[in-house]
Amino acid sequence: MIKKSKVIENEQIIDKIVEGIQDKKGKNIVMVNMQKLKEAPCSYFVISEGDSNVHVSAIANSIKDYVAESINIKPIASMGFENSEWIAMDYGQIIVHVFQRPAREFYDIEHLWEDAELIWKDQLN
Known about the structure:
Structural class: alpha+beta
CATH class: Alpha Beta
Radius of gyration: 14 Å
Order of helices and strands: HEEHEEEHEH
CATH architecture: 2-Layer Sandwich
Number of domains: 1
Number of helices: 4
Shape: globular
Mean pLDDT: 91
């Protein structure tokens, strides 16, 4: 008997990431689609923001919980939990960024690749 391997689509992971963000009232959610770019570090960024270090940390932990509980995937790596101004989590072809507003405005990573498609939360669902 051959077992079918379970393939998790990027869209399924993104849906759970967005649910985790929304559960903790994350703001200004955008997906950056970089699939067509030659020099992109991944296929997608999912970016959001929180109001404080506690809020950013809560959003990031909610994302980890939603993805782990529903799809059984954990981030390959994560960083930024120490000060929670900018938390990044690597899910392979999807990298999640949760910022406090000043850090998000300063780094402006959603605009680093001008040819990337920006899809705001109201267009995701």
